[in-house]
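Side project, low priority. Logging it here so it doesn't get lost.
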Amino acid sequence: MTMTMAETRATERKKKVEKYFHPTPEQSLDRIATGLLVGGGIAVLVGLIALSGSAFLGVLLMAGGVWAAVKGGQKKKEYKEAYEKAEPKPSDREMDRLLAQDLKVIEDRAMSRLGITSDHLEIGAEAWDPVAALLGGSPAERPEKRPLVLYGPKLSGFGIGDDGVWRFREYEVLVVCPTLHHLALFHCTLDFLSGGLSKEDTEEYQYNHVVSVSTRTTPAPDHVSLDELNTRTPDADTVRFSKVQRRRLEVSVSNGQSMGVTVGITDEEDSSKKARLQSSGIDEVIGSIRRVLRDHS
């Protein structure tokens, strides 16, 4: 079955981005494999020479040489496969550019799904802009009105970049669209490997039904282990968490429903241990939403 152009691009992207989350094998493993191959070859050669003087010694050397060569060949193959899974890695900057592109797509999709244009928005262009932040710019670089976009990690596989930032295989994204008459929300899960979206939800609330815009800290599920989810960083560099807790921003309404994203990951027993995430803009977003709520109260 022939893949479409979009499917081909998603597959190519997945192959590229997956490399970021795979550990690059140590070169010493390749050197060990090469040593076994060379040593095994020498042992076989010496064994052949020794056959004329001592059949037992010659056979012993040849058998040991063959074993070493086979073992070296296996290790060489394992190293090559592991290396090809991990290299060449996209840079931290490339990963941020991809995420910025994804967030722009999600922003546009949210507006389309909610039937909202920039003219409907009750918020200025100077508001928080994660796309600009990821690209190293400022909100002024996109002067048009736009919704508030928040994103945060799902507790899925992650890798710690050379810049110390934790980047995840999946993200939650919340798009907040304050309009003249109501607050419209779009929430989805981003598969960062392929750029695909899932679990897309939309909600629209009258302002007088919005109870709070707040952050709260809750323990992560007991089965979550950051050591197991850390797919790239060597054990020596792993940040050890005794118990994981998440800080989440949530928009809650009077019927008990809420939408939100994770904006922080810390150790419950030692708050100095925390994941270094991309800037969430949480303070700017909370301030912007609260100003809109006050204006419509």
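Brief comment: The longest helix spans residues 55-86.
Revisit when time allows.
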